[in-house]
């Protein structure tokens, strides 16, 4: 069996929720991070305001795509939406608190001739932590049916 066949058969199955979650996550992360950086750098909003608003936009995309595509949930909209928001809030606080604290120990780095501030690095770190904690919460606590 070729490597490509193995990957297609084992990782891209319609039943592999983690791969589908990552695909949805890619979409909502692009939406959320784009919004965060525009709000942080162009609109001049604070770290907490920019990350909250950007993640809220990404969350709306995430809810509908994960409910229908990733987990194919039959949970009611009302109950799953409440659990979804609670999990997102908890993941947000945990992830961006950790990354916000880490920013205090970071220095500006230059990537491709662009200075990346500690706050911007913290946003990227927070996004990674958020993705992992969010998958666990969505799979086991939100979209259970």
UniProtKB/TrEMBL annotation:
Residues 20-143 form the GtrA/DPMS transmembrane domain. It is found in: Membrane. InterPro entries: GtrA_CellWall_Glycosyl (IPR051401), GtrA_DPMS_TM (IPR007267). It is a multi-pass membrane protein. GO terms for cellular component: plasma membrane. Pfam families: GtrA_DPMS_TM (PF04138). Coiled coil: none annotated. The keyword Flavoprotein does not apply. The chain crosses the membrane at residues 21-40, 46-65, 81-101, 121-137. It comes from the Bacteria. GO terms for biological process: polysaccharide biosynthetic process. Keywords: Membrane, Transmembrane, Transmembrane helix. The keyword Membrane applies. Its main location: membrane. Belongs to the GtrA family. This is Polysaccharide biosynthesis protein GtrA. It comes from Cytobacillus oceanisediminis 2691.
């Amino acid at each position: 069996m070729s490597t490509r066949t193995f990957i297609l058969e084992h990782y891209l199955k319609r039943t592999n929720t983690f791969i589908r979650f990552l695909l949805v996550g890619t979409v909502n992360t692009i939406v959320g991070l784009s919004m965060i950086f525009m709000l942080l750098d162009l609109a001049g909003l604070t770290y907490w305001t920019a990350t909250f608003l950007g993640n809220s936009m990404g969350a709306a995309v995430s809810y509908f795509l994960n409910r229908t595509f990733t987990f194919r949930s039959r949970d009611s909209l009302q109950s799953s939406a409440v659990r979804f928001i609670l999990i997102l809030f908890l993941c947000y606080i945990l992830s961006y608190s950790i990354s916000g604290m880490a920013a205090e120990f970071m220095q500006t780095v230059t990537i491709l001739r662009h200075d990346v501030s500690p706050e911007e690095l913290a946003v990227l770190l927070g996004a990674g932590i958020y993705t992992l904690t969010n998958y666990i919460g969505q799979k086991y606590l939100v979209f259970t049916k």
